[in-house]
């Protein structure tokens, strides 16, 4: 037990630091390290400083070994390349960055029981007993005691709900679909709130179908104080409007709607609507419990002028809402860095099917992507040498260009350094980067 406690004591400071900074529960980090490295004695832990079984190319290279995986519930053995680190602490840091990808959004800021379930459901591990194994470790060694910030359990304060999705497109008009716009806006806001240190989570991160019961349960179970439900209106009208519960003040709803209006969208109204028996009319108010939910309709998709504004300015509107919410809850706000150089074509970036909130640029037929944003989206930390002004990814020096203080590299070169596949969709100016190895094994 003494050796086991020493292992926990070694990892705890870094795990707690990352819990406070990023919202990855310290108990989850420590429990995963215990389970996957057998208390730091596994081959990966001793020879590659890899505590979590994360595959790929790490800061110290790659370590190849045969390991167990589960395919269709059956255990098989397979030779794979695993990330190699210089220390266990470096492994913890990389594990944290790995879990900051949008697919693990429900892990961030959650309680330890939810985190154990969601990390498995999001595809981190292949062992069906993985969540229960983690829970037993956390309970046995009381690792939940590390999930505290200034003595208070950290939970997300805000959940962002991208309205509609999957088989439900929402409103459609002028070549746009509500479900696409709300997901775009929500994923952008999620990334911005994270950058600003606001504990946040999402109801969906991709184009999936959620029933009203599933959607509202996610909100109720999240433990948040606020919910922002993003929507695009239709049915004859123009402008932004916000709807609040009949049981809550209109103060937050007004602040959010006015923020969008201040960016050029017409201001329509802020209101609440009562349903049968004095309850809220809208299920997002009625079924989300004590959470203060604001339904924000950014404009009318079937109005040509509104649709054009939404298409061209959605990010500006999304950012204005981030600013207004931060001011409402008293969190320090600062503008994002505009990484795209002036006078060149912007390029959208998708990594493993998720659109990043930053863009690249196209110059002389070559797509250049922000090195740090793309690398961190797949859990890799780039290295910057201030003296030589060179950037390295997985030990490989890139032909990078510095724009507004950020490093950009050719898409194909960056993808190769990350061990990823890349494709270019010229008609929509999208660079798609994909990988097939982002999971861990027991």
Secondary-structure blueprint of this entry?
Layout: H1 2-22, H2 26-37, H3 43-48, E1 62-71, E2 74-83, H4 88-99, H5 112-121, H6 130-140, E3 148-149, E4 152-153, E5 158-162, E6 172-173, E7 176-177, H7 178-195, E8 200-202, H8 212-221, E9 226-233, E10 240-243, H9 251-261, E11 267-271, H10 283-286, E12 292-300, H11 304-329, E13 345-351, E14 354-355, E15 360-363, E16 366-370, H12 371-377, E17 383-385, E18 390-393, E19 396-397, E20 401-403, E21 406-410, H13 411-418, E22 421-425, E23 430-434
Parallel strand pairs: 5-8, 5-9, 9-12, 10-11, 13-23
Antiparallel strand pairs: 1-2, 3-4, 6-7, 10-12, 13-14, 13-15, 15-16, 16-21, 17-18, 18-19, 20-21, 22-23
Helix pairs in contact: 1-2, 1-4, 2-6, 5-6, 7-11, 9-11
What do these coordinates show?
It is a single chain. The protein is of the alpha+beta class and 442 residues long. It has 3 domains: 2-148, Lysozyme (Orthogonal Bundle), CATH 1.10.530; 158-329, Aminopeptidase (3-Layer(aba) Sandwich); 345-434, Copper Amine Oxidase, Chain A, domain 1, CATH 3.30.457. It is 35% helix and 24% strand. The protein is built from 13 helices and 23 strands. The strands form 6 sheets. Strands 13, 14, 15, 16, 20, 21, 22 and 23 form an 8-stranded mixed β-sheet that branches. The longest helix has 26 residues, at 304-329. Residues 436-442 have low confidence and may be disordered.
Which structural class should the secondary elements be placed in?
alpha+beta
CATH architecture of the largest domain: 3-Layer(aba) Sandwich
Shape descriptor? globular
Give a short account of the largest sheet: 8 strands, mixed
Strand content: 15-25%
The CATH superfamily of the largest domain is known as Zn-dependent exopeptidases
Distance between the termini: 22 Å
Helix content: 25-40%
Low-pLDDT stretches are 436-442
Number of folding domains? Answer: 3
Q: Output the CATH class name of the largest domain.
A: Alpha Beta
Counting DSSP H or I runs of 4 or more residues, the number of helices is: 13
- Quote the CATH topology of the largest domain: Aminopeptidase
Mean pLDDT over the full residue set: 85
Quantity of strands, as a count: 23
Whole-angstrom Rg: 23 Å
